[in-house]
Amino acid sequence: MPLMGYCGEFGSYDVVAAVAGGVSTGLLLLLLLAVSAYLLWVRRRRRRSQRQSWHPEIVSTPPAVPSCTSPLALSMQTSRRGHSSRAIPFFLPPRFKSWPHASLQEEDEEQEEEQGPTQHHAPWSSWTAGRSVPLGNLRPDLYHVPEEPSEWAPPTGGTVRLWFAVEYQQEREQLVVSLLRAANLPARCHGNATLVRLQLLPDDRRHRQAKAKRKGRDPKFNDSFIFQVSRGCVDECTLSLSVLSVDRLKKHQLVGRVLLPLRWAELREAAGKIMWRDLETENGQPYSKHGDVQVSLNYNAQLQRLTVVVLRARGLPLQAEAGVCVQVSLQLHMQVVRTKKTALARGSEPTFNEKLTFKLLPPQMDEASLSLQVQRASAIGPVSLGVVVIGPIMYARGRELEHWNDMVSKPQELVKQWHGLGTGKTIQNSS
Fold first, then answer.
1. Full-model pTM
2. Which of 19, 317, 328, 391 could be joined to 395 by an S-S link, Cβ 3.0–4.6 Å?
3. Which candidate, 44, 90, 46, 100, places its Cα nearest to that of 69?
4. How far is the C-alpha of 246 from the C-alpha of 255, rounded, in Å?
5. Max Cα distance, the chain (Å)
6. What's the number of CA atoms in the CB half-sphere (13 Å) around residue 187?
7. Which three-class secondary structure state does DSSP give residue 352?
């Protein structure tokens, strides 16, 4: 029993010693952590104090400055606080004056009004370089058209004149037409918009269109257009420039046109030069030898209907009391498939105003043509006074081809035009 009591006392002493050692070890670790945290805090505080001693202006609270204070007032306030030696000057960014789009257009138009049409556009574009394009990116000397009073002299009388330039680029096989201005438009066109339709006859059916930048008696265009044409076909082409007046009701009225036959030798001489032509107007156009006939054409592909409106004739070589009519024949491959006649009208300038319709399928458009023959009534039968053929390139050229192409490209309009009569074989009636 004494031995067992001694062992129990010894075991309890070991437990107490172990617990005391653990507690002392924990206290020692906490003390070490506290000392380490204190040393770290002291180190950071020293660094912060050193930074404040090096750059006192960074941590100093800046004075409250209104937003409208100028940089000079700001620098004076900082100098008063004793930081003028190390103060960083503050500058407001410059403010650029904004230019409204409308004011830019007005200034450009005023410059064009003062300088005249002296800007020449690049062949591959039809825009005008304005204030939005830096001047350093362009060479104005390459686009400057010299102002020569002799070339820009207005025409006399009621003649309408058109200025343009034509250049053929052989390397690209491109015909560049620069449309500049028109002058001396009639008074009825001053308040209307002015359009110019450009077309390369006889093959090109799609026309280009230029609109004048402002209305008035002398409209300006300053636009360029490109026609793709091979070197071998240049001498066979004719450039057509038609001037149109558009009223408020969007009704187009032909003022006149210019037909310029292209010749390779003349194009080389005309490169870089301004040329002008007087428009051939309806009133100023001379009568043909056998007279003229005015017709309107329309083709509706959905209805498969070709409409011919015979309006009037003029300059016919006959007496006033003689009766005349117009025989209209639809031909396919030079074979007459249908013929119709107008009623008789009297005089050397008779008026018909008669509509004739023909059925024509869309695939037959390139094979069909119209033959209009003016006939005089006599005791022995009708006598032909003249004939004109209107159709595609296979059957017609010049004005007759242009009239046919305009009819195809404007299915919603009645396209009206005068045609000169020529001598031809009499076409027999057929049903």
1. 0.40
2. 391
3. 90
4. 10
5. 176
6. 1
7. strand
